């Protein structure tokens, strides 16, 4: 892929974090494997990573682990490869500290949810983004009302953008109509695809970037799909999308971390287990993911 015009453009992988049993039996991050994974994603054509998102199980990490995820990704990233970590937290003070840590590590931007676990009103949301913006890095908002119970509706995004607090939004509602309304109210705000299973629809609508889960397992085919979709080459993009969709739709399900890690295992990468509260897939779920992944590989989707 060509170099992005902005660091948050292109295919940015919401990285899974490899965990292995330690001597005490507790699952611990394997930072060497994570570093290799970041470098591999760059070599496979992706344009960046967004560590410490939900796919990276950031809620279960200690502060030391979470900070080391960022520094490991930056150290492993080749020149021009974006590292845009999630800096979500319950309150703005903690989120700002994570944004400052990202800046010190050399990150190009950060991704920020509204306050976690607190259903703030619009005033609270604006103050949250104002505080984190003081860290000085460009902020891509993350709209995930399913988990946060706060919906960054187009009007609120326009207010945040108009004040210069955000440069983009990772849109995860699955409502493909929103990109048009956001474009009307906030021209210049980049609407990034945040859910794998609506990526074609948002690419056609003009989304300049995809914060994606399944490139963790199938980077080449997902990048090839995104390039074709953003070029409006449906002869290439649509067949790829149809073939990938049985897997892409897992990105919008509760078990998305387990599913993507299993697909990584199937294709010969290391996905591994998840920390609690996540539990293993049911046998039926595992069979569905495994069969869909094996089918994708048999079709040459790597």
UniProtKB/TrEMBL annotation:
Keyword annotations: Lyase
Any Pfam family matching the protein: DHDPS
CDD domains in UniProt: DHDPS-like (cd00408)
Keyword Lipid biosynthesis (UniProt): no
InterPro entries xrefs: Aldolase_TIM, DapA-like
Record-stated family: Belongs to the DapA family.
Name by which UniProt lists this protein: Dihydrodipicolinate synthase family protein
Upper taxonomic lineage: Bacteria, Bacillati, Actinomycetota, Actinomycetes, Pseudonocardiales
């Amino acid at each position: 892929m060509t170099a992005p015009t902005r660091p948050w453009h292109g295919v940015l992988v919401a990285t899974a974090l490899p965990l292995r049993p330690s001597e005490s039996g507790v699952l611990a991050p394997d930072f060497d494997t994570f570093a290799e994974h970041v470098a591999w994603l760059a070599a496979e054509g992706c344009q960046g990573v967004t560590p410490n998102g939900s796919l990276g199980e950031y809620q279960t990490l200690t502060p030391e682990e979470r900070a080391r995820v960022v520094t490991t990704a930056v150290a492993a990233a080749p020149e021009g490869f974006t590292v845009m970590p999630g800096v979500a937290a319950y309150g703005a003070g903690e989120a700002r500290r994570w944004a400052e840590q990202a800046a010190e590590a050399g990150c190009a931007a950060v991704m920020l949810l509204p306050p976690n676990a607190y259903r703030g009103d619009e005033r609270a949301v604006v103050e949250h983004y104002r505080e984190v913006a003081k860290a000085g890095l460009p902020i891509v908002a993350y709209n995930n009302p399913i988990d946060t119970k706060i919906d960054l509706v187009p009007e609120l995004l326009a207010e945040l953008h108009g004040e210069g607090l955000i440069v983009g939004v990772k849109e995860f509602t699955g409502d493909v109509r929103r990109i048009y309304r956001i474009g009307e109210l906030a021209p210049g705000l980049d609407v990034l695809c945040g859910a794998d299973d609506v990526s074609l629809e948002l690419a056609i609508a003009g989304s300049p970037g995809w914060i994606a889960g399944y490139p963790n397992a199938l980077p080449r085919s997902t990048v090839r799909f995104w390039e074709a979709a953003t070029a409006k080459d449906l002869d290439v993009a649509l067949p790829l999308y149809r073939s990938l969709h049985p897997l892409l739709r897992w990105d919008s399900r509760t078990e998305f971390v387990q599913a993507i890690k299993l697909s990584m295992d199937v294709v010969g990468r290391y996905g591994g287990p998840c920390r609690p509260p996540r539990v293993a897939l049911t046998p039926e779920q595992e069979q569905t993911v495994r069969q869909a992944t094996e089918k994708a590989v048999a079709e040459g989707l790597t």
